[in-house]
Write a structure and sequence with these properties.
The complex is a heterodimer of chains A (96) and B (509). By secondary structure, chain A is an alpha+beta fold. Chain A has one domain: Monooxygenase component MmoB/DmpM (Phenol Hydroxylase P2 Protein, Alpha-Beta Complex), CATH 3.90.56. The two termini of chain A are 18 Å apart. The radius of gyration of chain A is 13 Å and the shape is globular. Chain B has a single domain, classed as Ribonucleotide Reductase, subunit A (Orthogonal Bundle). Chain B is 60% helix and 4% strand. Chain B contains 22 helices and six strands. In chain B, helix 5 packs parallel to helix 8. Chains A and B meet through strand 1, helix 2, strand 5 and strand 6 of A and helix 3, helix 9, helix 10 and helix 13 of B.
Chain lengths: 96, 509
């Protein structure tokens, strides 16, 4: 069993495609200790504690406006809880 | 790199838009009592004090829902057209891959449709506007899934057996009573139990085990359409997971008295869902010519790591414990797929898919994925089945199997820690004996015997004369089976067609 004090993992699975590469790069830039795993058709991003997707970071890499609702086209699955989904960021973490 | 400077000016933030277009559209009832308008939310014993506490973290509105769902469909149908135009079926890894898709088509779209209907019911009958709107979105999603699954697989129906009468089959064929009875069970429960059954246990706890390895498997086996509809559906599932999680937390936060009710539903529906997706275990390990990961690995990744080490630590805050039969499921991960596929193999003469003895490549993979258990099943089962094949025969079980009264899977599971002893549990209700496959199903039966004694068990129905006639050929006709649908894969119509298509193409170079 893992030590209780360690923050638990959260994660998100995205479709692997051209557009989502910008999202993956943005998440990599904004989240320390991120693990990236490639599976056929999928990219799996996991991290202890809290995972953030920043609108500004994604827009910078896409070179066009990107609203956070668009993340729905990229996401395949996640684990953790969506604790924030706002205009400027999406945050996945455990609440308790 | 510069950030684009021109952004459309918005009057409201996402939070405000969501609030204005969902919660604010609700109104207090003036000339009808609340209990008359929403008559189904009291009888299960769940206490709710403040429905406005139910929020959708996705903050979806009708406008954003339509916009992104339309885009998802556009992308999917572009792929379907391209695949059909390029004769994509020829570049699958092997014709035998289709067997997994046959079971999927026969078993899943009708379940999606049932989910559509029940969420539509919730969209009308839950008291709170946030909960109603999230249910409405999910209802429309489920209808979209049923439709896109049917459209996606309709191309394959032109070339392969077993897909022509999926709708009739899902109502009648023995192994399809497993998913059908699962949704019947959930749909005849109250709205809160439905939310725990489908929204939470199925969508949040288990759906990753159904979809993600499966769609990754499709990607690996050249099945572009299935991969695309799967990922398209899964993107909706993320919202469904959220609804399920929101639902369970809402119930637990509203009143302490809800905890034991929710825990019992969770215990029940974890086991019901887990038994249902054991069919997926058999498909993943035995029916994909090219495999991405084993059932065992998927179970460890998607269930043990994400759920037991993640989610249940979160829910412990409310007093929720992991499902009561979770240890049984964990120890079964080593043997589940072997047992399920052996059931499918023995009875595929009465099915709309074909099976075969794992070939040398498959066996090497199984030996590596299951070093402890594969050698047992190889010597006890598959070497013998191969010997029958070598002598020009094919082993089919000539009898009809006993079915579990709850999960409806043939009794092919074994005692924990003892893969050679068949597991069978009994319960007596009103002087009659009922049999179940495991402690989990027995416990579920004994909680609500008056419900499960009514189960439509395909084998009992055959013996009662309700399935077309007394002989297997009569039943096969009633099931809608046609020559080439079931039986042995080697020498099947699918395999012969596949060989002919590839022999007649230009030499590869």
């Amino acid at each position: 069993m893992s030590v209780e004090a360690e923050p638990r993992m959260v994660g998100v699975d995205l479709q692997e495609n051209e557009e989502n590469r910008a999202i993956v790069e943005a998440v990599e830039a904004d989240n320390e200790d991120l693990t990236v795993r490639h599976m056929p058709g999928l990219i799996r991003l996991t991290k202890p504690g809290r995972l953030v997707i920043n609108q500004a970071s994604v827009e910078q890499r896409l070179g066009r406006p990107w609203e956070t609702h668009e993340f729905q086209l990229a996401i395949v699955s996640y684990f953790g809880e969506i604790v924030e989904w706002d205009d400027d960021e999406i945050v996945i973490a455990w609440k308790h | 790199m510069s950030v684009p400077t021109q952004k459309p000016v918005r009057k409201l933030s996402m939070k405000q838009r969501y609030s204005a277009l969902t919660h604010d559209l609700d109104w207090p009832l003036s000339y009808v009592e609340e209990d008359d308008a929403f008559p189904y939310t009291k009888f299960e014993g769940i206490k709710v004090h403040d429905w406005s506490k139910w929020e959708d973290p996705f903050r979806l509105t009708v406008e954003s829902y339509n916009k992104y769902q339309a885009e998802k469909d556009r992308r999917l149908y572009a792929v379907l057209d391209g695949f059909a135009q390029s004769q994509g079926q020829l570049s699958l890894s092997d014709a035998s891959y289709m067997n997994a898709m046959k079971i999927f088509l026969q078993g899943i779209p009708s379940g999606e449709y049932q989910a559509h209907r029940n969420f539509a019911h919730l969209a009308r009958y839950l008291n709170g506007p946030g909960a109603r709107f999230a249910s409405l979105c999910q209802s429309m999603d489920e209808l979209r899934h049923a439709q896109t699954e049917i459209h996606t697989l309709s191309h394959y129906n032109k070339f392969f057996g077993g897909m022509h009468d999926w709708n009739k089959m899902s109502d009648r064929v023995w192994y399809l009573s497993v998913p059908k009875s699962f949704f019947d069970d959930a749909g005849t429960a109250g709205p809160f139990e439905w939310l725990i059954a489908i929204g939470f246990s199925f969508e949040y706890l288990l759906t990753n085990l159904l979809f993600v390895p499966f769609m990754s498997g499709a990607a690996f086996n050249g099945d572009l359409p299935t991969m695309t509809f799967g990922f398209s559906a899964q993107s909706d599932e993320s919202r469904h997971m959220t609804l399920g999680l929101e639902g369970i937390k809402f119930m637990l936060e509203q009143d302490e008295d809800n905890l034991p009710i929710v825990q019992a539903w969770l215990d029940k529906w974890f086991w019901r869902g887990y038994r249902l997706i054991s069919l997926v275990a058999g498909m993943m390990d035995y029916m994909l010519p090219k495999r991405v990961m084993s059932w065992k690995e998927a179970f460890e990744l998607y269930f043990e790591e994400q759920m037991l080490n993640g989610l249940f630590k979160d829910l412990a805050y409310y007093g929720i414990k992991p499902p009561r039969d979770v240890e049984w499921a964990i120890q079964e991960k080593e043997i589940l797929s072997h047992q399920v596929y052996w059931i499918l193999y023995q009875f595929s003469h009465a099915a709309a898919f074909t099976t075969t003895v794992p070939n040398a490549q498959d066996q090497a993979w199984l030996a590596e994925a299951y070093p402890e258990t594969w050698p047992i099943y190889k010597s006890v089962v598959w070497d013998k089945a191969q010997k029958v094949m070598d002598e020009g025969g094919r082993y089919f079980n000539p009898g009809l199997p006993q079915l579990c009264q709850v999960c409806q899977i043939p009794m092919g599971f074994t005692e924990p820690g003892d893969p050679m002893t068949q597991c069978q549990r009994h319960s007596i209700y009103e002087g009659e004996r009922y049999d179940t496959c495991s402690d989990g199903c027995k416990w579920i039966f004994e909680r609500e015997p008056e419900k499960y004694v009514q189960a439509w068990l395909p084998v009992h129905q055959i013996y009662q004369g309700n399935c077309g006639g007394p002989t297997l050929p009569d039943v096969a006709v009633w099931y809608g089976l046609e020559p080439g649908d079931g039986g042995e894969y080697v020498g099947s119509m699918d395999q012969l067609d596949w060989a002919a298509w590839h022999a007649s193409t230009v030499k590869e170079g």
